Amino acid sequence: MKQRLIFIDVIRAYAICMMLQGHFITALLAEPYCDENNIYYHIWHYFTGITAPVFLTISGFIFTFLLIREGERSGIGLKNPRVIKGFHRGIMLIAVACLLRKSIFFVDILHCIGLALIIMVGIYLLIGKHVRHVLPIVLISITLLLFIFNETYNQYEYSWLPEVIANYLPHKNNTNFFTIFPWLGFVTLGGFIGSMFYYNHKAKHLYLIFTILLIVFGCIFHFQFHTFHFLYELTGWEHFDTLSRKGFLFLRTGDMLWTFAVFVMLRNILTAPFLQRIGQNTLSIYIIHCLVLNQVIPMFNLDFFFHKSLNPIQAIIGAIFFVVGVVVLSFYYHKIYKYIKERYFAESMSRKMVYKLFTVLFISFFSFIITNAIYTLSGEDYSAVVSYSILYYLLPAAFVASILLFLKKRSLFWIPYSILCFYILTEGFINGWNNPLRSIYLLVAITVGYGILGVLITFYFKRLREKKSYLPK
Question: Are residues 181 and 249 in the same domain?
């Protein structure tokens, strides 16, 4: 099966457009109109809630589908190039999410998808040669366990963990909505569906059977009250009775499966190229919408000017223009990117060098994350000021240092670090920080992050020089 699954791109297009309008109206619709007793708002709010499950499931579907397909061509385990690509993709999504939120403590859907992809890669590697028979069972088991015992593990406390890690886990005091549990369950569910779809893609009447199964299981999950009430009467297990009353995740699973079924049935109708392009450019659309709507750039965003101030008519018209505008900007972004790539980086050597420098930037960001984590573990109160300090101090210095290592100027590697340390100490004395040890903690954290950066970059370029002739020797 080499052809692209068009209906998957169309589902992704639907999900990203629903997300755009949902975020726009949520951010800008005035509070008096956000009334669940209003039938129109209630219907809009219900259908907007389907967006995240659809997006997470489709991410797991396409990732697993491509992972298995490439594995049968290239080999199992690390021989599969999709393993490394998936790991890189996961790290990249987490890095982009942290940059957009300007914090490593806030966990959003991009963090969740990125970490879920890394976990999926780990599961694939652990299973080894038994992918065909074991992987679908493992994936659907993870989904059912996470959904069935959601109310149980939500009661746990993770105060013994650093906050940067605990925020990825559900607990009473966590204000983050997209924690890895239970939302990983939708990604693994998508992986299960993707694996079964691939292994049976040669079956007769594939799409008819696929659609019927989606509708049937959608009914079972959507009407979870009757499903779990029946299981409760059958087994007497009180947990089933609890799920019949608090089966939110199963309800959304049913809605998601029905959404899939609709797009599968319309697969020969919804084939417009622009819908496919939207589905293929979801990451750039997400990033652009964050820049335009959210306060990524202070005072230059829609939320700053129109926060909770629009009436319903203004919000609806604005949402339509917002979705169209962001999608058009995404199209132009890719056109400009393609032009620059062909005009200035047509040669293989130029492209490869640019790609390697971007890889360096992401490794630099990794050192930034490590630095934040170490500063937190030191026991210091982690404030926004410190977060911005590490972000704006460490990243530029780390990037300059990476270029120096790239050019094999090892003797100059510590110069940006020395300037950075001098600046931090000077600022600490001038501003009169309340805690004198604060500068020391910050310096220790940055030293560790900077050192990790140096080791990673040196190792990275050493391996490249063994394979590529265009790197300086």
Answer: yes
314 and 451, same structural domain? Answer: no
Render the burial of 288-326: b for 16+ CB within 10 Å, e for the rest.
Answer: bbbbbbbbbeeeebbbeebeeebeeeebeebbeebbeeb
Q: 234 and 263 in contact (C-beta within 8 Å)?
A: no
Note down the domain range covering 387.
348-467
Which of 344, 359, 385 is the last residue in one of the domains? 344
What pLDDT, in 10s, does the model give residues 65-77? 999 999 888 888 8
Query: Letter for the amino acid at 308?
Result: K
Residues 210-220, buried b or exposed e (16+ Cβ, 10 A)? bbeebbebbee
Write down the pLDDT at residue 457.
Answer: 66
Where is the domain boundary, 312, 344, 376? 344
Torsion of CA 270, 276, 277, 278, to 10 degrees: 70
Q: Note the pLDDT of residue 470.
A: 43
How far is C-alpha 125 from the geometric centre of its chain's CA atoms? 21
Residue 345, SS3 per DSSP: coil
User: 325-344, pLDDT tens digit by residue?
Assistant: 999 999 998 888 787 777 76
Query: In which residue ranges of the chain is pLDDT below 50?
Result: 377-386, 388, 392, 469-473
DSSP codes, 64-84:
HHHHHHHHHHH-SGGGSHHHH
Given CA atoms 220, 223, 226, 228 in this order, what sign does their dihedral have? positive
Residues 190 and 326 in one domain: yes
- 246 and 292 belong to one structural domain: yes
Note the residue count of the chain. 473
Check whether residue 95 and residue 156 sit in a common domain. Answer: yes
What was the pLDDT predicted at 378? 47
Query: Are residue 87 and residue 164 in the same domain, yes or no?
Result: yes
Q: Are 370 and 398 in contact (CB under 8 A)?
A: no
CA–CA separation, 416 and 430 (whole Å): 21
